[in-house]
Amino acid sequence: MQAAIKERRKRILLTLFLLGRDSGHNIFSSEVKHVFSLPADSPRSRGTIRLMLTDKVITKEDTGVFRITEDGVKELSLAFPFVRFLVFPWDQKMRIVSYEIPERKRSLRDSLRREVSGWGLGPWHRSFWLTPHPITEELKRITDNEQGAEYVQAFEGTPVLGDPKILLEKVWGISKLEEQYKKIFKKWHEVLSTDTTKKEDKMKQVVELYLDILKTDPGLPKELVGKTWIGFEAFDIFDEMRKILL
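Below the sequence we write its predicted structure tokens.
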């Protein structure tokens, strides 16, 4: 049950962000539910919405539309790290995480693996992971809940030496990710070139293709990848397609 609630919550936050975080949206419209594969308007969905309003990750306007908040973006970025630095500035710090968890602490190990998969972590050296995202508080929460702080080490610091381009390739495989984005562009073009498909069905395909790569994009700041990074271009293209097709 908890996993289902978490998935509904994440899907709602992502929908509101991709629809445009600066304006309100009716997430219960048939078109939006179809395009973003949102759950049906049910008591469970309404309950999830009420909890999200209480947690202030979304707001509801008098007109009945919803809007994602900054807290909502922060929560969403733990699953889709790409969105963080579209909204918030980078603090110029890197985080290094290392953990060796014994078999008898399997629940902690499994919980940590699930959570950190969306933190933009990249393998630096054996047992050492690197990320520019501010994940230390979330890491403390997990280890405190599971009583596993003794198995985890984390550090924060500012890079002072080294070629960032080498780091980007070694840790995050940036060239491979760029090729994946180029493939998405081609697939988007194929979708848009289909004459027999309804606009909302085209947009649904566009969204599904985009989510495939958003799940793997580590969400690196422009200070590392540059302002013209293909991931930022993809987001702008997606937004233009949304305005045309929805």
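The CA atoms of residues 96 and 189 lie 39 Å apart.
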